[in-house]
Design the sequence.
């Protein structure tokens, strides 16, 4: 009998992550096509209440162990592998985020199963799972149809809209027991909050984001002026934060914040996948980049192939003028 | 303190990538290989730890085009030893590569035991696995990835490391040594080493070579890629044209239309 | 009869005895100090500056005897020329006096007794005093930038005045005592008349003569002893430093791993510190200094002097042993654009740039390289260009041409066009490159390019201190050039021009002529292969690129081209060898911007151009100039008021059908 489709329900600081719902949406689709059940796997400590939101799945298998109170990937992987040995699913979808990063590859090694990384989509073709993975910084896509009966898939954010995976109904929950080593070799001691910034960029309506294309620290001021005119804030991609031109709290992307503002201006950002996953659901994306081939133009709604240093001041000026006109008309 | 750094060569994406004739892999003719960027960070972190705690750094890599340059550069930067694993097909995937690395670590004398095994937290060609957790699993060592900071307490055989979480948050973990760490960023950007130093290393130092016998059970299976292609661009931005002023006007129109002004 | 100071008794001993004592003391102090400096310098690296003796003597004649570079600043130049010759005269008479006095048995007259000698010496003395006053006024009332009112300078001015005045007075008293109305010594007569008018009698004059004679001799002996401890060491060192000047246009220090300790510099690099007279001309010419940056070429040389003077084998704790970091900061080392204005104006031919390059090599070898520069180096190693783009894209600029330039790797061509990375990869320049390609084709020039095989020539890599990378690039390029088939080579980039001409020995000693594209265009116009179909009636100014002009003396061909296309040329305020650098050389385009906004070298330069009456256009013939100036137009708000155009754009416009 073919096994079920599992989704590892990621939760972070007491809340179920958005990507879990994306995976549930994807998993439900696959399960339906295969004629099997979708089950959510919830690993943690005292997290049973979180199961209520996972109604897109037919049932939730949860594990409640103190050893899983903190996000320690190898413990989670061991728990998952143990659960998989007991329940024999045919495919497990794992979120590829900083929280769950290694779990898939680890669990696959434990079980001597196939692991496929960086999946952006999974479809059913001729009754078999066909996986599309993104490689080489987004420059190539690989299609893999694993022959094995047990696969673990690491799924990138954005495979399906999270809303498709939400549900009002609470699913059935079943507690699982798993084998875990007596002592953990890895232990979380505490969290280090970034220096308190003045603002939370994930709550801004307008973000002007800078990347390496602004060339130096001085030019961040150009973005700040535009942000000021638009009542927004400045943020940046990883290279800008690594250079120290903006604090850690302003980072957008895989290790930074995921943002969904009304307006996202990407100034001098190339559009590497790690950044795009942090902003691609913004309502309006305007990208400025001097490289016409920059991948950001595949994500943006409007694109400008020009030097950021030319466009930003002109943009700021135009906005300023427009606002003045609006004010004088209103007056 | 003994540190091993696992390094691998990945396709250089500055070059235009082409698909091979049979459509299942990269065309190797136009391909250039470059050190996996995060492996450079792993090497840098190892060198920083060596400077802080004193010890040795050994860099291990599987044979691949341009790997000699990478290994000599590592030696010039301050690594004590460079080992190239030859013989056998070039690693065709992350999983098979990790497997060969583990065989090398287990069979080549003088490598293990080590206090730390560092490698990059990810690579652009990771299709069927991630090196750090795989190596850790096979060597039965604890591991943590997405690490940006390492502090070692040799006496207590523990290390304190930071892992990156979303939103700029970091988790401080304690990990028992020996351990495998997947480095996301070294504490300082990878150092520069002058070309003259690299050339001097090429003359004065040697890369050791070791062959690793093929695995008795044939090793892990390689996931067959059915097709590789450039991603279809389903959407593309509407490109605005004109002088910066003209573009700026168009943009302010767009914003006004959406009530953003 | 005048008393002879040599034989007169003083404190029971004859004059010559006292003079011997004083002379020995003075010479020992002087000689000991000089010897110590020499011994310190012998610890440094050797460098051969003894070749081409004839050329070197010529340099000394023009620049020491003729004081040519000082005359760049005409007024003080003339004054210093006079002071110099006065000094020569007085040094001669001093030695004469000394010999005559120390060895009374020597039956020679005193110099003052030889009337034509006295005549010349007195004229020079009087003129010298006037020049001295001019110099003092300049230094204390109207000092130019970087001319200090130091104690040393004050002491020297006073000493020189005393030397001149005591000698003139002595001559006056002599004539007064002799009573002769000698018409062959007008100055002496004049001085004598002054003394007479203040009541000095003929009988008192001999005594006064003796006093002033002794004052004069003792002052000079004192000056001699003080000399090696003051900036006036340049009296001794300057003729030597001019003789040992760098004859190679490339202004490069011999290959090394870099220098920070004394023994790592060459003796000639350190010698610059001793030869420096602290005149400040280098500061006044330096673009980084002008933009308010902390780099001061004069300060660099001054610190080198201190380094040498204070160097001691037994310095405790290694203090003062490391020049880099201890005596000179890395950020200043990186600020230099290697434009060589400092070396061009230095009257004693000091070598600021080799010093900076040696220090950059040290920083590079220690890995102390700022991130942007690091990235540029890494890209250059890997892709042969600093843009980080694939070498396969080097000829993408040719794609929108309606013809395909010949490939010099595959077929022989008359001219090889070595473009340089900026002309190939920079989006703003590709159009200009195409313009030149079309123009040359129209003119029937048989040229080809190297397509993907071209790499960065290494000029700026070398000047940024990455000597190993330079050698690597040179090796690769030499092989490529050996395999390509061409007769002569022209390049769009003065930086390529400089290094190919001066630093690629196999290329230059071979059969190829190497020219800049402006030279080629000038020849084509001259020979009628290019004919303007219209005269462009613009009013333009022209910026001389550092590596074309100052480094290699190519000033006229671009001007000939401008003439041929019919524009009206107004020279920049600082042109030709005084051209003011755009700020992009020496690897600076690969580094963080320095200096304050609105006062960067490129901004200063475009404002220079815009200030010229009626000039619409600044013409450039170097790709980096084009990029630096177009950016500067934006930041200075001069867009629309001034246009930046490359020579090839004007040529294409003029010859267009």
Sequence:
């Amino acid at each position: 009998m073919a096994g079920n489709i599992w989704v590892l329900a990621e939760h972070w600081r007491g809340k179920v992550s958005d990507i879990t719902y994306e995976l549930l949406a994807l998993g439900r689709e696959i399960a339906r096509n295969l004629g099997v059940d979708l089950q959510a796997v919830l690993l943690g400590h005292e997290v049973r209440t979180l199961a209520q939101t996972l109604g897109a799945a037919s049932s939730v298998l949860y594990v409640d162990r103190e050893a899983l109170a903190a996000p320690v990937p190898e413990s989670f992987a061991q728990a998952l592998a143990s659960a998989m040995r007991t329940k024999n699913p045919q495919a497990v979808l794992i979120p590829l985020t900083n929280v769950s990063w290694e779990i898939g590859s680890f669990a696959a090694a434990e079980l001597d199963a196939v692991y496929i990384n960086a999946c952006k989509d999974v479809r059913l073709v001729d009754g078999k799972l066909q996986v599309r993975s993104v490689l080489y910084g987004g420059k190539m896509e690989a299609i893999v149809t694993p022959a094995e009966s047990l696969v673990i898939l690491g799924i990138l954010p954005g495979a399906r809209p999270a809303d498709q995976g939400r549900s009002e109904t609470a699913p059935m929950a079943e507690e699982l027991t798993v084998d875990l080593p007596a002592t953990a070799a890895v232990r979380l001691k505490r969290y280090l909050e970034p220096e308190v910034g003045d603002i939370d960029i994930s709550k801004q309506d307008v973000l002007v984001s800078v990347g390496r294309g602004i060339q130096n620290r001085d030019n961040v001021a150009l973005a700040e002026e535009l942000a000021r005119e638009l009542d927004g804030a400045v943020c940046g991609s990883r290279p800008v934060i690594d250079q120290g031109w903006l604090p850690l709290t302003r980072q957008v992307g895989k290790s930074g914040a995921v943002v969904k503002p009304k307006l996202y201006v990407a100034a001098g950002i190339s559009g590497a996948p790690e950044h795009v996953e942090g902003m691609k659901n913004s309502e309006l994306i305007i990208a400025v980049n001097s490289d016409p081939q920059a991948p950001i133009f595949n994500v943006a709604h409007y694109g400008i192939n020009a030097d950021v240093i030319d466009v930003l001041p002109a943009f700021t000026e135009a906005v300023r003028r427009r606002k003045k006109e609006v004010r004088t008309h209103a007056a | 303190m003994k540190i091993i750094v696992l390094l691998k060569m990945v396709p250089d994406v500055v070059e235009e990538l082409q698909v091979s004739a049979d459509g299942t892999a990269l065309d190797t003719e136009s391909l250039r290989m470059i050190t996996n960027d995060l492996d450079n960070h792993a090497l840098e972190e190892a060198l920083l730890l060596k400077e802080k705690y004193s010890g040795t750094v050994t860099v291990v890599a599987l044979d691949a085009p341009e790997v000699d340059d990478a290994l000599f550069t590592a030696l010039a930067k301050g690594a004590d030893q460079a080992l190239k694993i030859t013989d056998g097909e070039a690693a065709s995937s992350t999983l098979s590569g990790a497997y060969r690395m583990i065989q090398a670590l287990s069979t080549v004398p003088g490598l293990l035991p080590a206090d730390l095994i560092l490698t990059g937290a990810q690579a652009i060609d990771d299709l069927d696995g991630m090196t750090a957790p795989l190596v850790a699993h096979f060597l039965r060592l604890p591991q943590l990835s997405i690490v940006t900071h390492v502090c070692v307490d040799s006496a207590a055989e523990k290390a304190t490391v930071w892992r990156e979480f979303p939103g700029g948050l970091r988790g401080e973990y304690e990990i028992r040594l020996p351990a495998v760490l997947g480095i996301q960023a070294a504490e300082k950007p990878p150092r520069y080493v002058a070309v003259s130093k690299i050339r001097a290393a090429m003359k004065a130092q040697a890369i050791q070579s070791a062959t690793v016998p093929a695995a008795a059970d044939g090793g892990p299976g390689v996931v067959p890629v059915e097709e590789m292609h450039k991603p279809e661009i389903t959407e593309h931005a509407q490109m605005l044209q004109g002088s910066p002023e003209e573009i700026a006007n168009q943009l302010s129109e767009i914003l006004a239309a959406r009530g953003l002004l | 009869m005048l008393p002879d100071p040599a034989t007169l008794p003083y404190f029971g001993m004859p004059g010559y005895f006292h003079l011997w004592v004083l002379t020995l003391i003075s010479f020992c102090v002087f000689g000991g100090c000089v010897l110590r400096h020499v011994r310190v310098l012998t610890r440094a690296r050797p460098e051969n500056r003894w070749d081409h003796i004839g050329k070197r003597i010529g340099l000394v004649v023009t620049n020491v005897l003729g004081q040519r570079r000082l005359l760049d600043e005409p007024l003080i130049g003339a004054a210093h020329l006079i002071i110099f010759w006065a000094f020569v005269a007085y040094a001669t008479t001093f030695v004469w006096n000394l010999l005559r006095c120390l060895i009374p048995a020597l039956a020679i007259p005193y110099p003052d007794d030889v009337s034509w000698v006295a005549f010349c010496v007195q004229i020079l003395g009087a003129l010298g005093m006037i020049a001295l006053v001019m110099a003092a006024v300049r230094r204390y009332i109207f000092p130019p930038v970087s001319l200090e009112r130091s104690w040393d300078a004050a002491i020297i001015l006073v000493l020189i005045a005393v030397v001149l005045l005591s000698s003139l007075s002595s001559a006056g008293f002599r004539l007064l005592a002799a009573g002769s109305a000698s018409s062959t010594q007008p100055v002496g007569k004049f001085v004598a008349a002054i003394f007479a008018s203040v009541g000095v009698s003929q009988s008192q004059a001999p005594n006064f003569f003796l006093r002033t004679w002794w004052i004069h001799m003792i002052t000079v002996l004192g000056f001699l002893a003080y000399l090696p401890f003051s900036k006036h060491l340049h009296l001794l060192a300057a003729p030597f430093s001019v003789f040992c000047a760098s004859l190679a246009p490339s202004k490069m220090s011999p290959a090394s791993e870099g220098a920070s300790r004394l023994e790592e510099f060459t003796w000639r690099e350190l010698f610059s510190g001793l030869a420096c007279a602290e005149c400040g001309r280098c500061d006044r010419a330096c673009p980084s200094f002008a933009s308010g940056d902390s780099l001061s070429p004069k300060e660099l040389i001054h610190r080198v002097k201190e380094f040498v003077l204070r160097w001691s084998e037994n310095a405790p704790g290694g203090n003062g042993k490391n020049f880099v970091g201890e005596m000179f900061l890395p950020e200043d080392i990186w600020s230099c654009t290697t434009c060589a204005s400092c070396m061009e104006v230095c009257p004693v031919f000091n070598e600021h740039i080799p010093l900076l390059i040696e220090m950059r090599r040290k920083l590079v070898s220690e890995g102390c390289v700022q991130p942007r520069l690091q990235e540029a180096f890494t890209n250059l190693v890997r892709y042969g260009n600093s843009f980080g783009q694939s070498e396969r894209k080097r000829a993408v600029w040719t794609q929108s041409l309606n013809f395909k330039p010949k490939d010099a790797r595959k077929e022989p061509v008359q001219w090889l066009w070595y473009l340089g990375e900026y002309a190939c990869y920079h989006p703003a320049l590709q159009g200009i490159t195409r313009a030149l390609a079309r123009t040359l084709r129209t003119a029937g020039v048989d040229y080809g390019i190297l397509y993907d095989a071209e790499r960065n020539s290494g000029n700026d890599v070398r000047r940024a201190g990455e000597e190993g990378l330079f050698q690597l690039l040179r090796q690769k390029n030499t092989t490529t050039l050996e395999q390509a088939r061409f007769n002569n080579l022209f390049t769009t980039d003065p930086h390529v021009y400089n290094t190919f001409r001066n630093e690629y020995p196999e290329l230059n000693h071979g059969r190829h002529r190497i020219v800049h594209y402006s030279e080629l265009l000038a020849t084509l116009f001259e020979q009628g292969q290019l004919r303007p179909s219209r005269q462009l009636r613009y009013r333009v100014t022209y910026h001389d690129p550092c590596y074309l002009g100052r480094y290699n003396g190519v000033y006229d061909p671009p001007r000939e081209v401008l003439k041929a296309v019919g524009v009206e040329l107004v020279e920049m305020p600082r042109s030709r060898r005084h051209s003011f650098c755009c700020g992009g050389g020496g690897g600076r385009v690969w580094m963080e911007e320095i200096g304050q906004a609105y006062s960067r070298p490129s901004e200063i330069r475009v404002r220079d151009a815009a200030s010229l009456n009626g000039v619409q256009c600044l013409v450039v013939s170097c790709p980096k100039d084009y990029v630096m100036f177009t950016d500067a137009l934006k930041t200075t708000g001069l867009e629309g008021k001034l246009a930046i155009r490359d020579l090839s754009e004007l040529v294409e416009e003029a010859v267009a059908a």
User: Anything to note?
Assistant: The helical segments of chain A are 18-34, 73-87, 103-111, 220-229, 238-242, 273-276, 308-330. Chain A has seven helices and 17 strands.
